[in-house]
Amino acid sequence: MIARRDNAAVNEPTPADDPARERFIELLRQQQRQGGWLKLVLSGLRPAAGAEADLQRVTVRPVQLRGGPVLSFVSRHATKDLTHNHAPDEGLALIASWLGRRFRHAHFSGSDTEAELRFGKRGSGHLSVKPITATAADALALAHDRAKQRPLEADSPYLAALGLTTPEGQPVPAMARKWKQINRFVEIVSQALARTPLLQPGAEPLRVLDFGAGRAYLTFALHDWLRRQGLTLDVRGIEQRADLVAEGNRIVQGLGLQGLAMVQGDVGDVAAAPERFDVMIALHACDTATDAAIHRGIRAGAQLIVCSPCCHKQLRPQLLSPGPLRSVFQHGIHAEQQAEMLTDTLRALLLQANGYETQVFEFVALEHTRKNKMILAVKKAAEAPAERAAALAEADELQRYFGIREQALRRLLEV
């Protein structure tokens, strides 16, 4: 989404031409043309009144959206972040209008250059530019790569409110594993969303349901990432426990987050969720609750279904161990793994039979959590009757071979 140009800011008079300021602006233009721009931080806000009073800094990064490259401006306030995307030339004009008038300090990081512009009390600028040595360049490139792998900004206020980071934006050591899991989740979902039409801005909000949201770490994180893509949102964390719902909504209201809400209910509570929605998430739903969530997603026409199943209990009492497999599955742990594998294979086949491209994979390392399997299903753009029939035939064959009489998702789909 390309934000409208801030004409008022651009057209206001800037300080008299300052050589340091002009050299810095030209450096930004060159780096933009050469693709060397990593990050620009504007700080040292001049005294302002009203809504600007709590503005701390603005961070500008290049971002590639479906509509083309943009400069993403993230304004950090005391209790919230605001994101606006501008076309590159428009963004550079906005930055130029702010230097020395709105901000006293600018720090630029490029792939081979680092520059700092400061304005003194009398308004004159001082520019420091230095090339980055090979060692420093490697370190900066590594930091940039890490930033791409970590789609979340650690100093976002909601992370501190949830206890994942300190008020200064530093990850809490005890929450390090959770922090990695959340970033990995957002990375997977963002890549899957890129295979759908959902990242295209539209008149209707993008509707996301997170069933069994708990403390809503993932709900808040995905809302944050989607918001920074310039989308209008309706993100709901569905949770049974009233205290967690109340806690989440206090954070939402305290930070003024638009398009995010916690709702009390569960996957079977129709009143808690709209009939139609775009993304369905159900992580660690126990046993057949995962089947119920997948069914809700299919019936709602969701473009993306994301599950991390838990407690595969339904099939285990039904399973036969044909022929030579008896010696393998006489051991309890093997029988448990067999039930898990067959349950999730049937779920994947039934999703394929309903028009989804489906993957089953490990989404985080086992050391982080035992509940590390994910079912990811992206709705196909075109009907494929032959593929659907083949998936159902495979499901039939598996059920016959292992003596499976009933599977929850299949029963729900046949009703």
Strands, helices and their partners?
Elements lengths: L6 H5 L7 H16 L2 E9 L9 E11 L2 E10 L3 E6 L1 H11 L4 E8 L2 E7 L5 E7 L2 H16 L7 H5 L14 H18 L12 E6 L5 H11 L5 E7 L2 H14 L4 E5 L14 E8 L2 H11 L4 E7 L15 H4 L2 H22 L2 E7 L10 E7 L5 H18 L5 H7 L1
Parallel strand pairs: 8-9, 8-11, 9-10, 11-12
Antiparallel strand pairs: 1-2, 1-5, 2-3, 3-4, 5-6, 6-7, 12-14, 13-14
Helix pairs in contact: 2-3, 6-7, 9-13, 11-12
List keywords for this structure.
415 residues; elongated; 13 helices; alpha/beta; disordered N terminus; 7-stranded antiparallel β-sheet; 7-stranded mixed β-sheet; 14 strands
What do these coordinates show?
- The protein is an alpha/beta fold and 415 residues long.
- It has 13 helices and 14 strands.
- The chain has helices at residues 7-11, 19-34, 88-98, 134-149, 157-161, 176-193, 217-227, 242-255, 289-299, 326-329, 332-353, 385-402, 408-414, and strands at residues 37-45, 55-65, 68-77, 81-86, 103-110, 113-119, 125-131, 206-211, 233-239, 260-264, 279-286, 304-310, 356-362, 373-379.
- The strands form two sheets. It has a seven-stranded antiparallel sheet with strand order 4-3-2-1-5-6-7, with helices on one face.
- Helix 6 packs across helix 7 (217-227).
- It is elongated.
- It starts with 6 loop residues before the first helix and ends with a helix.
